[in-house]
Amino acid sequence: MSDIVTNDIEMKVAAAPPAPGRQQQPRRHWLALALVLAAVLGAFAFGIHSRIQAEANLRNVNAELGVTSVSVVQPKRAAPAQELILPGSIQSFISSPIYARTDGYLKKWYFDIGAHVKAGELLATIQAPEIDEQLSQARSTLATAEANLKLAQITMDRYQGLLAKHAVAQQDVDNAVGSYAANKAIVDADMANVRHFEALVSYENVYAPFDGVVTARNTDIGDLINAGSNTVPRTDLFHIEQTGMLRVYVNVPEEYWRGIKPGVTGADVVLSEFPDQKFPGKVVRTSEAINGITRTLLTEIDLPNPDKTLLSGSYAEVHLHVPAETPTFLIPTNTLLFRTQNLQVGVVRDGKVELADITPGHDFGNEIEVVAGLKAGDQLVVNPPDSLVSGQEVKIVQASLPGGESH
């Protein structure tokens, strides 16, 4: 009986449920294990993701480093009429040396340097007694010839009257007519000789040939005056210049000759003596030929000078308003590429560079004129590196508009 009771008690003990504390301990163990495993897997996944992201960033950085960053600027159109500044020489409209036409001694002069004279005014008087005596002799010879002519005419008329009455022979009449013709020829010759010496005597008075100013007086009272010969040089008495209108001569470079149109092209003359003033002139003529040595076109500009403000011989700056024959552009000089080929610039199109040949025009210092090779809207690389080649990919980091604004 006791055995039965003992077995019954052991069965009850075996069938009884476990204690609460002992039942939760395995679950906590597995939950902790799951959390640790999840943390390990999360850290592993985060590390893989970070590595993938870093590799992607590295690839992007390498790609960006492989593309050259550039700044660009757009060319701006040049003015339709550009101002060409060239050195010029101012000269008087008429400049004439006054020489003597007869030999003698200077008796008197009436105007000195700086004097303004009118055409026909007496400048000086030359004393030439030899010429005066030759004129007197020529007049006496003419008087003798005229007397002989008068006698020959009387004789001819008388013989012609007697011939009508058959009182003289025809031969006598012919002799009288011939004598008259010979004497008339002598008179004509003597009259021409008188006019010759009268002209020489008139040259004893030296007159101004035009309105102007006396710029030089090269003689004085008592000086020997020579009209000039094969052995003796002629005497330069005065220099007179007409300064109411001035001529300005300028040499225009060959590339601009097509824009120089006489009567159309305007010009302003600037002198250092008048820094804030421009004197308007006009192109009146050109040499119509390019100088083979200087490759320039000699151009003349008429410059009014009514107040005699400007002086001949002055140096001047000539501002020519030359119309452009074809549209041109202005670009900064720091966009140029100097290669063994032609002058080039780098033009960015669709993210790539194209090296374009250009034809330069006038150099303005910080800017240069481009005659051919560009079009409006082109983006030019600023400060292009020497390694720049066509087809190279670039990235624009700054763009400037034609007016100089950036965006």
Protein described:
- The chain is α+β, with helices and mostly antiparallel strands and 407 residues long.
- It is 32% helix and 35% strand.
- The protein contains 4 helices and 22 strands.
- The chain has helices at 2-15, 20-65, 129-164, 170-202, and strands at 68-73, 76-77, 81-99, 104-109, 116-117, 122-127, 205-207, 212-217, 224-225, 236-253, 266-270, 279-290, 296-304, 315-323, 329-332, 336-337, 344-349, 352-357, 359-363, 367-372, 380-381, 394-400.
- The protein has a 6-stranded antiparallel beta barrel with strand order 3-10-13-12-11-14. A 4-stranded antiparallel sheet has the order 2-15-20-19, with no helix packed on it. A 4-stranded antiparallel sheet has the order 7-6-4-9, with no helix packed on it.
- Strand 12 (279-290) and strand 13 form a beta hairpin.
- 21% of the residues are buried.
- The model is unreliable at 1-7 and 9-16 (pLDDT under 50).
- Using only CA atoms, what is the Rg? 55 Å
By DSSP, the count of extended strands is: 22
Question: What is the average per-residue confidence, as pLDDT, rounded to a whole number?
Answer: 82
**Percentage of residues assigned to helices:** 25-40%
Q: Helical segment tally?
A: 4
* Largest sheet, spatial ordering of strands: 3-10-13-12-11-14
Measured between the Cα atoms of the first and last residue, the distance is 109 Å
pLDDT under 50 segments (min length 5)? Answer: 1-7, 9-16
Structural class computed from helices and strand pairing: alpha+beta
Q: What global shape is seen?
A: rod-shaped
Strand content: 35-45%
Largest sheet: 6 strands, antiparallel, barrel
Element-level helix/strand string: HHEEEEEEHHEEEEEEEEEEEEEEEE
